[in-house]
Structure prediction request, 206 residues.
Amino acid sequence: MPNICAISVGKVKTIRSGNENPSQEIFSAIHKLPISTLDNPQSVHLHHLGVDGDEQANLKVHGGIDKAVYAYPAEHYLFWNECLVKEKRMSSHQELTFGSFGENLTTAGLLETEVFIGDIWQIGLTALQVTQFREPCFKFNIKMNYSGAAKKMAQTGYSGWYLKVLEQGMIMAGDQIQVTPGKRLLLIASQSQAFYQRSGQAQLDF
Prediction:
């Protein structure tokens, strides 16, 4: 059964600042760190606006009721580790830690090709609903120190997805995810592919 590998949170901070023009400062909470892992499964409160202790810098694109929680498959980490080593953005001795994509929930056993918008997740006493794919942006490029990161996410469809919180409660790493199918009209992978084809690669450049 699918499960949670880690729960991560982050605070808003400057991720890039203009040396000459202060208005070029860019803020984000994409830098997230695990607070509950399989090695240290701490209980964390999940409320209607997300995980306790988590923040978002731009509520127009992240956060709010419909994007309260961001989930990303642990299965994609190997791909990104190899990609960043190949692009010389990381040494072969390094590995990305859970939370590296700005996700709140790092999951195992669910991929974009299996997750539908409208699916409901029961995690203990909490309930969440899948709402949409994560649209990659230039802040992801900054976070990865790789100008092709957003484009690569769109090309592969390794986007992850957002969820809204239907029932608040406590969750922890190791909890199983019971999926109740919704109408199953639109896969996350299909939504991601449509975005990539519509937007064009040039718009994803850093």
Q: What stands out?
A: The radius of gyration is 16 Å. The CA atoms of residues 53 and 87 lie 33 Å apart. The domain at 3-198 is CATH 2.40.33.20 (M1 Pyruvate Kinase; Domain 3). The chain has a mean pLDDT of 92.
